[in-house]
TrEMBL record:
Ranges annotated as spanning the membrane: 12-33, 185-209
Coiled coil: none
Name this protein carries in UniProt: histidine kinase
UniProt GO cellular component terms: plasma membrane
Histidine kinase domain segment(s): 269-485
Amino acid sequence: MPHRRGLSLSQQWLLIAVVTLVPMLALVAYASWSFYQQMHTQRLLVDHSDALVSRQSGLNAQVRDLERFARQYRLLRDVTFLEPYQQKRDAILTELDQLTQLFEGGTSRRIERVAKPQQSVVYGALVALENTLHALNDEAIQSWQDEEFTEQLAVLSQRRSALDEAVSEYVAVLSDRNEAALQQILWRLSLLGMISLPVTLTLMALGFWQMIRPLRRLSSAIRHLGHRDWETPIRVTGPRDLQALGERLEWLRGQLLAVEQQKQIFLRHVSHELKTPLSAIVEAGSLLQDEVPGPINARQQNVLRILLENSQNLQELIQQLLNYNVITHNVTVEDRTVAMEPLCARITQRLDQQNLRHRVTWDYQGSPGSLNGDTHLLEMILTNLLSNAYHYSSDGGVVRVRWGVDQSGAWLSVADQGPGIHPNDQDKIFQPFVQGRVRRHGSVHGSGVGLAIVKESVARLGGSIELTSAPGEGSCFLLRYPVSEASRALPISEAST
């Protein structure tokens, strides 16, 4: 057994599932990473904003205390108020240094990218407030006049207010930029989702197509086996499971081919062994009927008639079986011009001679007088259709044969006035060895392959056959098959019964 490569069917299904899930998994991974980064940045922003607001609130309280100590000292000129002023001033300068360090080295690069301009404004306000506090030293407070002192306190208050506004604006910008970054992430995820969905569907379609191809080849191989194409080797590629199934089908094809070859040998042998003695019996019966050996009486004539009729029927059955065996194999179709009237006359004459006591009226005509097609196939079609019409028609019945050419190709119809075919039998009678429930005239039954031969012959011509029948109203078989453009140029006639 040849070595099978590739994945099994289940492994290939798993691979297709994994490949089709890659875009969605990548999208989920990117979404998780983006949201993680956004949450980390947001946490840093929140911590930074809380620290900044907290220090800014404490700084405001200390600046207000500084202003109060300065006013008390200027009002009472008591040195006891100067010491807490100095302490508060030193504490504010320390707080300013810490705030400055928070902006210079304590912020994250993400925060700098988000609100660097506003960060510069806050830093400038801090520097301005620090410079103002340096100007409010002890010597300055003691030496300033009231107007200068009031002016410096007003500047201090303005610088403090400017710092408050800068910090508030800075915090607001951080919040806005964080919200904008979140919206941008959502937009990117939406865009990637719209891209990944068709990519996933495309990968899924390609995967299914890759899976369906070997299944179609397998289906085609089975169909060829069903159509008796046992000469073409079967080779199925794809998953290992389907390769194994293809190998079993190849084995089955070999077995069917061997059986068919044995059947052909058997039929050829049996037909030869049967036809030779049967021909001798028919010939001897004919000699007796012609009274060559001597005269025979009426009773002997009756026995001889029964012998000859059954011998001829047996010959017909053997020939039908041989014809069916031939037609079900690859037959070479030769396109020739077939004269229809002489063909019909020859077949009807042969049928009339089978039973001199059963007579029907033959009515055959068509335009043009000939059809293009395979001579042997058309003769087998007409022989079987006319034989059916002859054996199922009552005495004196009319069998009509019409033919012609139209835009769709050539057509041929045979209609009789027999008992018709039961509706339940109409779908079965084209199968081999199947007969309808209505008995035909005569003591010998048919072979059951006549209409099967007709169907196979029409199929070889590339056409189709239709049956119109009703119990008690007769039957009409209409077949159509394609012909060349030159044949269609002949005079056109209508199909009729």
